[in-house]
Amino acid sequence: MDYVLLCVVVPPGGRYQLEIKIPETYPFNPPKVRFITKIWHPNISSVTGAICLDILKDQWAAAMTLRTVLLSLQALLAAAEPDDPQDAVVANQYKQNPEMFKQTARLWAHVYAGAPVSSPEYTRKIDKLCAMGFDKNAVIVALSSKSWDVETATELLLSN
């Protein structure tokens, strides 16, 4: 199996690392692709980086190439499919509160992918919980999954 580490730039300026594993049976079987950089997207696991994309599974055809995969991934990043999610919490936020989803995605892009600064309000909430001694990554996940409510995020952090 061959490995490729790829860095892609995604608006609004974040740099994301992808791990691509090309099996010995390629092109008859799809490559295994996952995000190494954390990302907040309904079709990408916020925990493992696994991608929910049909051509990486049952819709793969031997005529497809890595270029096809990257173009499909680019399209998925531009137009999420929340009804076929990899991450149900993110998909729920995407559908129930699109503006909060956008702000959360921008914050994750800033923190994990080096995109320009996002919401000062969200940054203050992160700083507040970090000042209580919680791990920054755990704080970001808790706040993101609890709709940026400090109280319920704190309860989640204390229960873990």
Question: What would your notes on this structure say?
Answer:
This protein starts with a strand and ends with a helix. It is built from six helices and three strands. The protein has a three-stranded antiparallel β-sheet. The chain is an alpha+beta fold and 160 residues long. α2 (88-96) packs across α3. The chain folds into two domains: 2-78, Ubiquitin Conjugating Enzyme, CATH 3.10.110; 88-159, Ubiquitin-associated (UBA) domain (Helicase, Ruva Protein, domain 3, Orthogonal Bundle). Residues 1-114 form the UBC core domain.
What are the SSEs and their pairings?
Layout: E1 2-10, E2 14-22, E3 32-35, H1 66-78, H2 88-96, H3 98-113, H4 120-130, H5 136-145, H6 150-159
Antiparallel strand pairs: 1-2, 2-3
Spatial ordering of strands, largest sheet: 1-2-3
Given the structure, what is the number of helices? 6
Strand content: 5-15%
Morphology call? elongated
Report, as a whole number of angstroms, the end-to-end distance. 37 Å
Count of the separate structural domains: 2
**What Rg is obtained from the alpha carbons, in whole angstroms?**
17 Å
Oligomer: single chain
Q: What's the story with the biggest beta sheet?
A: 3 strands, antiparallel
Helix and strand content put the structural class at alpha+beta
Mean pLDDT: 93
Percent helix, as a range, is: 40-55%
Please identify, by name, the CATH architecture of the largest domain. Roll
